[in-house]
C-alpha cells in the first residue's frame, strides 16, 4: 500500500502540513518495502504546473492522508479511486504508525 502525506520538510521527522495543497513537500510511504520517498510540491501553488491533487495522483498512491482538504482535491482523488483519510496525526511517523487506523475524510475545508 502506498500512502501520500503532505509534509513541511523533506525528512522522516517531518510535521504534517495543515494545508494539503500548500504543503512544501509530500512523502510517499510504501508499506510493503517500508521505503519513503519525498516529492517537492511543484504544483501551481508554488509557481509550477498542475493542481496538487493531480501531482500526487500521478504517484499512484492507494491512500492520501490529510488533516483537511478542499472538495475539488477530494473529487480528483475519488476519480482515481484513491482513498482520502485523516486522523489525529502530527508527524509523518504518526501517520505511518497508525496507517491501519486512519478514518475516511468525509468533508472538506470549504474550498
Folded structure, characterized:
The chain is of the alpha/beta class. It has one domain (2-104): Dinitrogenase iron-molybdenum cofactor biosynthesis domain (Nucleotidyltransferase, domain 5, 2-Layer Sandwich). It is 19% helix and 23% strand. The protein contains three helices and six strands. It has helices at residues 52-57, 71-79, 92-97, and strands spanning 2-7, 25-30, 36-40, 63-65, 83-86, 103-104. It has a six-stranded mixed beta sheet. The chain is globular. The model has no long low-confidence stretch (mean pLDDT 91).
Give short descriptive properties of this protein:
3 helices; alpha/beta; 19% helix; 6 strands; 111 residues; 23% strand; 6-stranded mixed β-sheet; Nucleotidyltransferase, domain 5
Summarize the structure.
The protein is α/β, with parallel strands linked by helices. The protein contains three helices and six strands; from the N terminus they run E-E-E-H-E-H-E-H-E. It has one domain (2-104): Nucleotidyltransferase, domain 5 (2-Layer Sandwich), CATH 3.30.420.130.
Estimate the helix proportion, in percent: 10-25%
What is the overall shape? Answer: globular
Question: What is the count of structural domains?
Answer: 1
Q: Determine the CATH superfamily.
A: Dinitrogenase iron-molybdenum cofactor biosynthesis domain
- The overall pLDDT, averaged over residues, is 91
The low-pLDDT segments are none
Radius of gyration in whole Å, from Cα? 12 Å
What percent of residues are in strands?
Answer: 15-25%
**Class per helix and strand makeup:** alpha/beta
Here the CATH topology equals Nucleotidyltransferase, domain 5
Number of strands: 6
Name of the level-1 CATH class: Alpha Beta
Provide a count of the helices. Answer: 3
N-C termini distance:
29 Å
Q: Can you summarize the main beta sheet? A: 6 strands, mixed
Strand arrangement, major sheet: 3-2-1-4-5-6
Task: Examine the secondary-structure arrangement and name the CATH architecture.
Answer: 2-Layer Sandwich
Amino acid at each position: 500500500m502506498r500512502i501520500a502525506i503532505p509534509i513541511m520538510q523533506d525528512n522522516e521527522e517531518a510535521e504534517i502540513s495543515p494545508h494539503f495543497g500548500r504543503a512544501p513537500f509530500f512523502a510517499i510511504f510504501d508499506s510493503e518495502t517500508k521505503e519513503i520517498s519525498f516529492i517537492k510540491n511543484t504544483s501551481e501553488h508554488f509557481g509550477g504546473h498542475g493542481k496538487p491533487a493531480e501531482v500526487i495522483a500521478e504517484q499512484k498512491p492507494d491512500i492520501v492522508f490529510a488533516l483537511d482538504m478542499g472538495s475539488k482535491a477530494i473529487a480528483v482523488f475519488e476519480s482515481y479511486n484513491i482513498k482520502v483519510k485523516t486522523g489525529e496525526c502530527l508527524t509523518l511517523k504518526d501517520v505511518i504508525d497508525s496507517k491501519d487506523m486512519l478514518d475516511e475524510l468525509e468533508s472538506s475545508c470549504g474550498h
